[in-house]
C-alpha cells in the first residue's frame, strides 16, 4: 500500500513540476531581462552594438540567460520523459516484486550529471538511481596462457570474488595448459553463481600471428583485439582484465560505468600513467601514435554489440597494417593498436577515472589517482618487475596483493541470497550424498570426508616433459604436506625421471612452497616434476585423494607408487624401465615390488649397491621397513629370499600387505574412505589382488625410509579410541564392498582378516 501511495505522490510531483517549471522559468527570464527597470533585448536583431548601453557586461548577461534557458528546457524534456514513463506503467507493475538494486558511486573524474543516472537507472528509487540490478550477471573476459599466468588469474579472481555481490560469468581465452589447470580449479572450487566458459587461444593465433610483437606477453598479448569475434555474438558488453590486476572494490561498480557511455563511445579505458606515448623516455624513442598520453588496456570496458556494428575487426586490422609499415612491430602488444585506432577515432573512447586502473610500473603518475585507501578501485601490476616495482606506497599495495594471494579460497564459496543460480550437477550430487549420511553417527566426519571436494590447482609450477618414445617410462608418484617439504630435493637427486606430487597445503602454505621451490636450484633445474596443490579442508589428511590426484596426472605408461619419506636407490629409474620390458608389464597384470628398508639415523651414507645395503643390514644401520612395529605390512616380500635372489620372484597376497609397487597407469584408484592413518595402502593392494594382479619382487631394487617426527594423524590414531573404532568400521565396510563387487573370490579377505 505504501508503495502505491509513494508512486502516486511521485506522479503528482512530476505533473506539478512539468506545469510550473516553464512558468517559473519564463518569469525568471522576464525579470532578468530588465536592467535599471528597462527591458534588455535578447534578440540579435534588436541588439545595438554602437549604443552606449551595449557593453561587454550586458553581452555576458545575455549569453548567460540564453544558456540558462536551454538548461531549463532540457530539464523540462527529461521530466516529461519521466512522467510519460510513469503514466505508461500498468498498476500491476507497482504491486509486483522488485529486484533490489544498489547505487554505484563513481568518485571523481566523471562528467555525467545525476540526471543521466536517473534516466539510465530504475526510477523506483530515490536519489541517484541504481545502474546494476542485484542479480544481474557481470561478464569478465581474461586472456590466460601457461603455468604462471594461471596462478596470477587465481589471485585476480579471489579479489573479485571477495568484493562481489553479483553473479559472475568468466570468459577465459586460454591455451591448453591454462584450460586444464583452471577447468579443474573452478570445477573443484564450486563457487556459487559463477560460470566459466573457455575459448581456445591456440585457435586464435592465426588471427594475430601476422603482427610482430616485442612485448613479453607474446602472441597472447594481442588476443584482446579479437574478442568481438571470439566471444558469443549475443554478448553485448564485457569487462576485459589483464591477469596482473587486483580489485579493491566490487566489480559491479565498474560494470555500472557502461550506463554512462554516450553516442559512439564503445571503449572504456584509463589514461596511460607513464610517459611512454609522449615519446621522451630516451633518445630516438618512437612509440606508436596515441591521443595525448594514450590509454592503458589492462582494464577495458567493451560494448561488443556496437563494436561489431562498427566493423571493429576491419577497423583495427587496417590501422595495424598501416602503422606496421613504419613501426615494424608492437612494443606494448594490443595496447599499441588500441591507441592507434583511438588516435584516429577519439569519439570511440570513454575515459575512466584513473582509480579504475592504478598502474604500478616505474615512473608513473599513479599517485595522482588516489588520496586515501578508499579511493582505490583497481591495482595493476603492469611492470615486468611486478611486486618489486618502485612506488611510494608499494608496501601497502604489496600487502593488499598478498592478502588475496594467501586468502583461503574456500571462504569465497558464498551464496548470493535472493539470486537464482544455475543447476550444478556436481553440487547437487554432493548435497544428495551428504544428506544420506547420519549426522549422529560417531564416524560421521570420517564418512563425510569421502565426499568432500577439495579445491585443486594442477601444475602449480612449470612442467615440461615428453615421455620416452619406447613406452617404458615410469613416473614416481607421491603425496606430502608442508612438514615433508625438505624431502623434495633429496628425492630429485635420487630419481631423475618424471615425478607427480600432490601437496596438501593451505593457500598461505602454497605461497611458502612457491618461494621455497623458486629459491632451490635443484627444484628449479627440474621441469619434469608436476606439483599439484590440493587445498586444505576438513580435519583429516585425505591421503588417498592426494594419491589419486598425483596418479591421474602422469604422462607415462607406468608409475611407481611411493611415499615422500622414502629415497629410491640411485639408478632405480633406469632399472625399472628395463624391468618393465623384461617382465612384459605392457601385456600382463603385474605389480612390481620394490623392497622397503628404513634407517633410524637422520644422516645416512646411502648404500650405492645391494651388497652395500646387505652389509648395513648386518651391521644394524638399516632394517627391513617397520619390522619392529608392523611386521605384517611387508613380511610377504620375503626379505630372506631377496638377500640372495638374482631374478624376480612371485609372492602371494597376505592380510595387511602394503608394499610399494610399479604398475600400469590404468590400475585402480585408492579408496577415499580411508583418511589420515591406517589401511590406506592395504586396501589398495587388496584391490589389486582382487583384480588378479601378480605380485613380483624385483631382486636388485630397494628404497629406504628416512626418519621424521610422527605425523599428526598417527598421533590421533594412537591417542583417540574413537578414531580406532571408526577405522575398524571402515575396514569392515570396505571388505563387504569387495565381496559384493568381486563375489566369491573376495571371501578370502574376510577370512584372512579374522585369522590375523
From TrEMBL:
<dbReference type="GO" id="GO:0042285">
    <property type="term" value="F:xylosyltransferase activity"/>
</dbReference>
<dbReference type="GO" id="GO:0035269">
    <property type="term" value="P:protein O-linked glycosylation via mannose"/>
</dbReference>
<dbReference type="Pfam" id="PF01501">
    <property type="entry name" value="Glyco_transf_8"/>
</dbReference>
<keyword id="KW-0325">Glycoprotein</keyword>
<dbReference type="InterPro" id="IPR029044">
    <property type="entry name" value="Nucleotide-diphossugar_trans"/>
</dbReference>
<feature type="region of interest" description="Disordered">
    <location>
        <begin position="42"/>
        <end position="66"/>
    </location>
</feature>
<protein>
    <submittedName>
        <fullName>LARG1 glucuronyltransferase</fullName>
    </submittedName>
</protein>
<keyword id="KW-0333">Golgi apparatus</keyword>
<keyword id="KW-0735">Signal-anchor</keyword>
<dbReference type="GO" id="GO:0015020">
    <property type="term" value="F:glucuronosyltransferase activity"/>
</dbReference>
<feature type="region of interest" description="Disordered">
    <location>
        <begin position="83"/>
        <end position="109"/>
    </location>
</feature>
<feature type="compositionally biased region" description="Polar residues">
    <location>
        <begin position="44"/>
        <end position="58"/>
    </location>
</feature>
<dbReference type="InterPro" id="IPR051292">
    <property type="entry name" value="Xyl/GlcA_transferase"/>
</dbReference>
<keyword id="KW-0328">Glycosyltransferase</keyword>
<feature type="transmembrane region" description="Helical">
    <location>
        <begin position="12"/>
        <end position="31"/>
    </location>
</feature>
<keyword id="KW-1133">Transmembrane helix</keyword>
<comment type="similarity">
    <text>In the N-terminal section; belongs to the glycosyltransferase 8 family.</text>
</comment>
<comment type="pathway">
    <text>Protein modification; protein glycosylation.</text>
</comment>
<dbReference type="GO" id="GO:0000139">
    <property type="term" value="C:Golgi membrane"/>
</dbReference>
<comment type="similarity">
    <text>In the C-terminal section; belongs to the glycosyltransferase 49 family.</text>
</comment>
<dbReference type="InterPro" id="IPR002495">
    <property type="entry name" value="Glyco_trans_8"/>
</dbReference>
<keyword id="KW-0812">Transmembrane</keyword>
<keyword id="KW-0808">Transferase</keyword>
<keyword id="KW-0472">Membrane</keyword>
<dbReference type="Pfam" id="PF13896">
    <property type="entry name" value="Glyco_transf_49"/>
</dbReference>
<keyword id="KW-0511">Multifunctional enzyme</keyword>
Amino acid at each position: 500500500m505504501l508503495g502505491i501511495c509513494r508512486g502516486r505522490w511521485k506522479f503528482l510531483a512530476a505533473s506539478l513540476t512539468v506545469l510550473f517549471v516553464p512558468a517559473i522559468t519564463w518569469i525568471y527570464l522576464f525579470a532578468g531581462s530588465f536592467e535599471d527597470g528597462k527591458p534588455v533585448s535578447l534578440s540579435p536583431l534588436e541588439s545595438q552594438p554602437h549604443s552606449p548601453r551595449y557593453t561587454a557586461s550586458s553581452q555576458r548577461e545575455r549569453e548567460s540567460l540564453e544558456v540558462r534557458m536551454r538548461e531549463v528546457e532540457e530539464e523540462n524534456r527529461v521530466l516529461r520523459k519521466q512522467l510519460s514513463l510513469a503514466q505508461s506503467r500498468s498498476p500491476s507493475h507497482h504491486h509486483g516484486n522488485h529486484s533490489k538494486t544498489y547505487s554505484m558511486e563513481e568518485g571523481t573524474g566523471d562528467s555525467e550529471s545525476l540526471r543521466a543516472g536517473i534516466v539510465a537507472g530504475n526510477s523506483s528509487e530515490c536519489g541517484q538511481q541504481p545502474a546494476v540490478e542485484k542479480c544481474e550477471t557481470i561478464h569478465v573476459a581474461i586472456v590466460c596462457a601457461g603455468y604462471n599466468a594461471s596462478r596470477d588469474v587465481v589471485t585476480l579472481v579471489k579479489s573479485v570474488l571477495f568484493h562481489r555481490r553479483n553473479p559472475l560469468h568468466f570468459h577465459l581465452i586460454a591455451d591448453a595448459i591454462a584450460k586444464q589447470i583452471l577447468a579443474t580449479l573452478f570445477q573443484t572450487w564450486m563457487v556459487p553463481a559463477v560460470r566459466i566458459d573457455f575459448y581456445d587461444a591456440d585457435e586464435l593465433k592465426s588471427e594475430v600471428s601476422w603482427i610482430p610483437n616485442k612485448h613479453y606477453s607474446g602472441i597472447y598479448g594481442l588476443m584482446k583485439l579479437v574478442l568481438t569475434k571470439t566471444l558469443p555474438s549475443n554478448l553485448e558488453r564485457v569487462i576485459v582484465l589483464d591477469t596482473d590486476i587486483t580489485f579493491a572494490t566490487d566489480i559491479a561498480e565498474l560494470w555500472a560505468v557502461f550506463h554512462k557511455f554516450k553516442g559512439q563511445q564503445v571503449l572504456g579505458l584509463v589514461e596511460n600513467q607513464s610517459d611512454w606515448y609522449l615519446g621522451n623516455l630516451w633518445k630516438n624513442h618512437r612509440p606508436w601514435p596515441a591521443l595525448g598520453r594514450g590509454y592503458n588496456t589492462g582494464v577495458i570496458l567493451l560494448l561488443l554489440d556496437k563494436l561489431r556494428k562498427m566493423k571493429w575487426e576491419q577497423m583495427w586490422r587496417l590501422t595495424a597494417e598501416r602503422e606496421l609499415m613504419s613501426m615494424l612491430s608492437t612494443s606494448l602488444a594490443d595496447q599499441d593498436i588500441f591507441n592507434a585506432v583511438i588516435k584516429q577515432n577519439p569519439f570511440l573512447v570513454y575515459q575512466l577515472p584513473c582509480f579504475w586502473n592504478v598502474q604500478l610500473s616505474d615512473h608513473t603518475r599513479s599517485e595522482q589517482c588516489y588520496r586515501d585507501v578508499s579511493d582505490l578501485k583497481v591495482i595493476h601490476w603492469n611492470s615486468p618487475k611486478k611486486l618489486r616495482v618502485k612506488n611510494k606506497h608499494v608496501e601497502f599495495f604489496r600487502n593488499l596483493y598478498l592478502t588475496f594471494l594467501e586468502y583461503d579460497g574456500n571462504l569465497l564459496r558464498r551464496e548470493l541470497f535472493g539470486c537464482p543460480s544455475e543447476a550444478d550437477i556436481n553440487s547437487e550430487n554432493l548435497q544428495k550424498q551428504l544428506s544420506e549420511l547420519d549426522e549422529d553417527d560417531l564416524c560421521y566426519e570420517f564418512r563425510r570426508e569421502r565426499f568432500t571436494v577439495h579445491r585443486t590447482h594442477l601444475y602449480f609450477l612449470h612442467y615440461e616433459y615428453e615421455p620416452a618414445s619406447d613406452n617404458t617410462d615410469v613416473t614416481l608418484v607421491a603425496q606430502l604436506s608442508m612438514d615433508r617439504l625438505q624431502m623434495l630435493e633429496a628425492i630429485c637427486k635420487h630419481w631423475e625421471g618424471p615425478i607427480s606430487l600432490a601437496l596438501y597445503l593451505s593457500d598461505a602454505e602454497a605461497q611458502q612452497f612457491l618461494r621455497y621451490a623458486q629459491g632451490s636450484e635443484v627444484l628449479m633445474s627440474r621441469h619434469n616434476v608436476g606439483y599439484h596443490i590440493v587445498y586444505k579442508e576438513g580435519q583429516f589428511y585425505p591421503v588417498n585423494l592426494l594419491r589419486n590426484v598425483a596418479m591421474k596426472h602422469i604422462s607415462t605408461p607406468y608409475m611407481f607408487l611411493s611415499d615422500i619419506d622414502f629415497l629410491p636407490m640411485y639408478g632405480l629409474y633406469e632399472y625399472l624401465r628395463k624391468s618393465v620390458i623384461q617382465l612384459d608389464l605392457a601385456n600382463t597384470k603385474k605389480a612390481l615390488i620394490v623392497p622397503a628398508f628404513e634407517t633410524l639415523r637422520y644422516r645416512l651414507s646411502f648404500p650405492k649397491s645391494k651388497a652395500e645395503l646387505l652389509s648395513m643390514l648386518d651391521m644394524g644401520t638399516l632394517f627391513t621397513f617397520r619390522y619392529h612395529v608392523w611386521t605384517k605390512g611387508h613380511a610377504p616380500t620375503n626379505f630372506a629370499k631377496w638377500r640372495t635372489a638374482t631374478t624376480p620372484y612371485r609372492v602371494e597376497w597376505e592380510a595387511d600387505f602394503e608394499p610399494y609397487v610399479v604398475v600400469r597407469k590404468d590400475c585402480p584408484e585408492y579408496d577415499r574412505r580411508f583418511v589420515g592413518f591406517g589401511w590406506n595402502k592395504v586396501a589398495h593392494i587388496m584391490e589389486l589382488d582382487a583384480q588378479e594382479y601378480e605380485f613380483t619382487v624385483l631382486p636388485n631394487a630397494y628404497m629406504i625410509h628416512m626418519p621424521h617426527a610422527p605425523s599428526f594423524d598417527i598421533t590421533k590414531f594412537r591417542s583417540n579410541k574413537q578414531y580406532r573404532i571408526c577405522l575398524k568400521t571402515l575396514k569392515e565396510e570396505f571388505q563387504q564392498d569387495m565381496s559384493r563387487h568381486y563375489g566369491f573370490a573376495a571371501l578370502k579377505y574376510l577370512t584372512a582378516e579374522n585369522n590375523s
